[in-house]
Amino acid sequence: MTMKTKRIGIYGGTFDPPHFGHINLAINMCEIYELDEVWFIPARISPLKKIKPLPSKHRIQMLRLAIRQIKRFKVMDCELKRRSPSYTIDTVKQLIQKYPENKFFLLLGNDHLSNFEQWKDAKELLTLAQPLVAVREEIQILPKNKVIASLLKEGLTPIPILEISAQLIRQRIKNDACCIHLVPHKVLDYIQENGLYCSK
Prior knowledge:
By secondary structure, the protein is of the alpha/beta class. Helix content is about 35%, strand content about 15%.
């Protein structure tokens, strides 16, 4: 019996913490490209980030709380099980091998455009999973590598961008500022209950 091909969006990141910006991007891409599901894949170790994130157990639980009411969204823990840094190319290859019947798309924010050529095996990655890049209306800064820039350009998708950053949220929590407009309330409850991001 032939398995039905599903269109799956892969959305990686540290999600430290997950916020409305992540959810907004995923919902828009899901609707525009008629994706069957979006798989959120939190990284254990992000190769291009110098700041050490919260322990994986907290980030994956916050992510589950953030998306649990959205039927087409799932959390995958495959990168959290690795001891090595979370290279997206390795994750995509693993998913293709495990789910060969599916077609995978790589969901990206416009903040990834300028440094994408630094990603491991960037060209190969973009041929294995079609990039869908959420952007504003204006011209974007693309990588200097022409092949990578061309592959990314095909997936540029203007959507209403929510100007939210995890760094801003962490700082506001540290300063005891309101964040209900930035983070789902269940996630905020979890942060408060576990004393996350607070000054020691």
